[in-house]
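Collaborator request, handled under Task 6.
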Amino acid sequence: MDVRSLGYVVIESADPTKWLEYGRDILGLMPAPNMPDDGNVYLKLDERPFRFAIVKGEQERLQRCGWELRDREDFADAKHTLSAAGIAFEEGDTALAQARKVRELIVLKDPSGNELELYWGGELDFAKFMSPLGISGFETGFNGDMGLGHAVLPAAKLAETHQFYKNVLGFGDSDYMHFHFSPEPNDPGQGLHFMHVNNPRHHSLALYEDANNPVGCVHLMLEVLETDEVGYCLDRVEAAGIPIVSTLGRHTNDRMLSFYMATPTGFAMEFGTGGLQVDWDDFTPTVTTLPSLWGHKFNMPGE
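Structure tokens returned to the collaborator:
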């Protein structure tokens, strides 16, 4: 299976307009000009018609991640692979494919219950990205082939979920961390797998050992092209009184210079620059014991 990128995310919210204001006025994303006026919010950041779809619903959660496959043949192979592995999936109908601006897609769940879509034939509308805040651009590759960024998802069944993405969907390992939050010798801690797909981004997915996450996401990441844009965003976040989940810092494994903020849905958003890009033919997966070279002092909202 040849998964190429994290193509889009679908977020469920009782009030999608909160994401319109947050995406436009804090993140600098563009309300998507070529998406329908259907009561949902669509946010654009590159050549793709949208990258964030915020749909009206009863919950506040990350509903699904959309993963892009290479082509029709790989899409057919993906369905065959899933069927052979005994993994259930649903064919997306024409209306859903049109809503996602793709040719075909299927819907399924990973072993921890995270919903995902696999699709091929994502459209390019080439509507010029014009950030309402003057951001020059986001790092998404050529025609968006590196995807919107990355997602860190909760995985109550960490080992099983890791094997699903690696052995069934064909993701590769980038790095592994293990965290202990108490001095107790019997504390099992929590694992964190970083995984890449077929693009140079250090990781497009990370799986965090977490059995109690009501919003379906630990964090999403957006990467800007210029360092100053990270600082400007940090100033906007502080001026708006948005909780800062983590101070500015630089990660060890992907070298991202970033900070984390709260989103209207309750998970975090990492906003950074300078992420590592990797030649996977000459890479050995790592095990990292220090998450950041400096900074990244975490303070979860409500603590």
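The cover message to the collaborator said: "Helices lie at 17-27, 72-84, 94-100, 158-168, 227-240. The longest strand covers residues 3-13. Please let us know whether this matches your experimental observations."
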